[in-house]
Design brief:
Blueprint: H1 2-5, H2 24-33, H3 40-49, E1 54-59, E2 62-67, H4 69-88, H5 99-102, H6 113-117
Antiparallel strand pairs: 1-2
């Protein structure tokens, strides 16, 4: 009978709500400081796809992602590992390059000139 009436203390539930402290602007700055600049839109996609541990918070101006610092550090270290692997293999992955310098100077660069000068001939005319 004593076991039923005995009040046992339970361990407090761990709430990770307070771990989600970084705004996307702060996350963007951390990526920039690490040498992996990312746009806010890219960071939103990282949050939605699960690359970053994030929660959506409703604000007066709309939904806003809050991100854990640990997930940012983890993802940046993964990017560093990928860059090191690409460099050691003698290849350079386009996704790891600076997005500004990796983009071609002109959208037709590297494409055969004919492709953009003439429209394709419909098959019924051949």
């Amino acid at each position: 009978m004593d076991d039923i009436n005995r009040d046992e203390t339970r361990p407090a539930a761990t709430s990770r709500d307070n771990d989600f402290t970084l705004s996307l602007e702060e996350v963007s700055q951390r990526y920039f400081d690490a040498g992996h600049a990312r746009t806010i839109r890219t960071l939103q996609r990282y949050c939605a796809s699960g690359h970053l541990d994030a929660q959506k918070a409703a604000t007066t101006t709309g939904d806003k992602y809050l991100v854990t610092p640990q997930s940012v550090a983890r993802h940046v270290s993964q990017l560093e590992e990928l860059r090191a692997l690409a460099l050691s293999a003698g290849t350079f992955a386009c996704r790891l390059a600076d997005p500004v310098t990796a983009a071609p100077a002109h959208p037709m660069q590297g494409a055969p000139p004919d492709r953009f000068l003439r429209p394709p001939i419909p098959s019924f005319l051949l």
